[in-house]
Specification:
Elements (H helix, E strand, L loop, with lengths): L2 H8 L3 H26 L11 H15 L16 H14 L5 H23 L4 H14 L12 H18 L6 H17 L8 H10 L2 H24 L7 H6 L7 H19 L1 H16 L3 H4 L3 H20 L10 H25 L5 H50 L4 E4 L3 H5 L4 E4 L6 H8 L5 H11 L3 E4 L15 E7 L10 E6 L2 H14 L8 E4 L9
Parallel strand pairs: 1-2, 1-3
Antiparallel strand pairs: 3-5, 4-5, 4-6
């Protein structure tokens, strides 16, 4: 063996250095986020949302009691991510009940996503430095450095959808083989079991297979979502839950009127979601459409067919999501679209540069401006999104610590197995073993049915509360005003106010009793608990007047 050959073997390859650099960068980012967030929460790890505690509660009850429910006493369809809930339940079953499991899984999925992007970029011809820069941009803009602190399934969804996208690049421009049918079925099933919205990404591949008369592959694309949604729906039905999870029925923009009226609302919702609620996704959709248009140039068309399919898959998926689902709410709902769309656009920009400079040597000014016109807006959108997320995440964790965690501490201390009516149900359910009435309907089907049928009023809520006989009610008063006010017999006892909020729905929450006797008891308990509250929580006695006035 020559000296040069020995030298090459002893020198780490540049891609390996890139993997190491990415891993170090991600570890440093998570360490920085952790230390910053716990400084806002008196040293206690806290998620940036109340929702992960809902999943933790269901996972704990599934692992320990075999009950798919927010409480161990009854099933409740409060999760729209069966795969994530089962995954967390397995970790609890095998590793014990630990609040950190969603965070750990989220970090693992986000790291895997970033490393996958880096590796695939190199495979598709990008230099190590460009691949590294692309992976860092996607990690930051996802924002994958923040999403694990939301404790939700979106990190897993992003990874699965990206695997699906890279698989499309390798599959959709050749004749499908038997192994492709298995892959299409497996990946699409896993995607939709993780988040139902991933079904939007199957629409274009399915339609394209029908147009090409590739019936077996089309059937595999259709079977995945049917198995996921239908299978969990059947399980839910057999367990006494609705076919569709309550969170989708309550939060989704599903049709409630004529087809024409629904179409009008859908178009308006698409515009509003992309323009007002999540302009970052709106900008990326426009860049994606422009990039797909550039790929239709004669010198690019045939060589970029797979990229065009993937781009239009995500663009159409984004429009469907914007019209039928939610965006925003701490960067999570649209994150899978942001990551996949950014990856596809970056690959497309590289193809534009590589192929056009092969035709035009040296590259013309027009080519340079074309690449810059696609790249710079993309970078600006993602860097802005990354900065916003980094700034807001610690405050979001503080919101949940000051409000939901303190509510849970109070419930655990005085009503650990009591009867609680509430509208924010995550932390209070996970940290205790209360009997729960969810007065928003996510975990209580009777309330959900009233909301879906638009019959939710004070008159219909009153018998639900009377029948449940709660020991205490904890609610946002601004959610219950006018025709949907809490019953007149409800007695306000105390109000907790925290600084202006980032992720909590309101900066104040109130405690209520239903009888004068329970109001006296609740007042004493709150007074006893008050000295343990963080200094940023302002506890104000409401005097306990018998009639609640809005």
């Amino acid at each position: 063996m020559t000296g040069n050959s020995e030298s090459r073997l002893k020198t780490p390859s540049l891609p390996l250095i890139g993997y190491v650099a990415l891993s170090v960068l991600m570890a440093a980012s998570y360490a920085l986020m952790w230390s910053t967030s716990v400084r806002h929460t008196e040293g206690h790890f806290t998620y940036a949302l109340d929702d992960p505690y809902i999943h933790l509660a269901i996972a704990r009850n599934l692992a320990h009691h075999g009950v798919w429910g927010v409480t161990q006493y009854a099933v409740s369809s409060a999760s729209s991510s069966p795969l994530w809930t089962v995954l967390v339940a397995l970790t609890i079953k095998l590793g014990g009940n630990n609040v950190l499991w969603p965070f750990i899984i989220g970090v693992a999925c986000s790291a895997a996503t970033t490393l996958l992007v880096f590796g695939k970029m190199i495979q598709r011809g990008l230099s190590v430095w460009l691949a590294l820069a692309s992976a860092i941009l996607i990690f930051a803009g996802g924002p994958l450095h923040v999403l694990p602190f939301s404790g939700m399934e979106h990190c897993l969804q992003i990874l699965l959808d990206l695997v699906f996208g890279f698989w499309l690049l390798d599959t959709m421009v050749r004749k499908p083989e038997s192994r492709d049918l298995i892959a299409a079925l497996a990946i699409s099933t896993a995607m939709c079991l993780c988040r139902y919205e991933s079904l939007f990404l199957v629409v274009i591949p399915f339609a394209l297979c029908l147009w090409r008369r590739e019936w077996r592959l089309a059937g595999a694309f259709a079977a995945g979502p049917i198995l996921a949604v239908g299978g969990f729906g059947l399980y839910s039905h057999l367990m006494g839950m609705p076919w569709v999870p309550n969170s989708i029925l309550i939060k989704g923009h599903l049709p409630h009127s004529s087809a024409l009226e629904f179409l009008r609302v859908l178009i308006n919702q698409v515009f509003w979601s992309l323009y007002n609620d999540c302009p970052a996704l709106g900008c990326l959709v426009l860049i994606g459409v422009a990039t797909a248009g550039v790929l239709r140039l004669r010198v690019l068309r045939d060589k970029t067919a797979a990229l065009q399919i993937w781009l239009w898959t995500i663009v159409v998926g984004s429009l469907l999501h914007a019209g039928l689902a939610m965006v925003g709410l701490f960067y999570r709902y649209e994150a899978y679209l942001i990551v996949s769309l950014t990856t596809a656009i970056l690959l497309a920009i590289h193809e534009v540069w590589r192929l056009l400079i092969g035709v035009l040597t040296p590259p013309s000014t027009t080519v340079r401006w074309l690449v810059a016109a696609l790249s710079l807006p993309l970078a600006v959108v993602l860097i802005s999104r990354a900065n916003d997320a980094l700034t807001k995440a610690p405050n979001a964790c503080q919101d949940i610590y000051l409000q939901q965690i303190q509510m849970a501490r109070f419930v655990v201390r005085f009503y650990p197995t009591g009867r609680l009516a509430a509208n924010d149900i995550g932390a209070v359910s996970y940290f205790s073993h209360v009997h729960l009435l969810d007065i928003v309907g996510l975990a209580t089907d009777d309330i959900r049915q009233l909301r879906i049928e638009r019959r939710f009023t004070t008159a219909t809520l009153t018998p639900e509360i009377e029948a449940f006989k709660p020991d205490v009610i904890i609610a946002y008063p601004e959610w219950f005003k006018g025709s949907i006010a809490l019953p007149p017999f409800v007695i306000p006892v105390e109000k907790w106010t925290i600084p202006p909020v980032t992720s909590a729905a309101s900066n104040y929450v109130e405690f209520y009793a239903t009888t004068p006797e329970s109001a006296d008891r609740l007042r004493k308990e709150l007074n006893e608990f008050k000295p343990t509250l963080p200094s940023a929580v302002n506890a104000e006695s409401l005097g306990g007047s018998k009639t609640f006035t809005h």
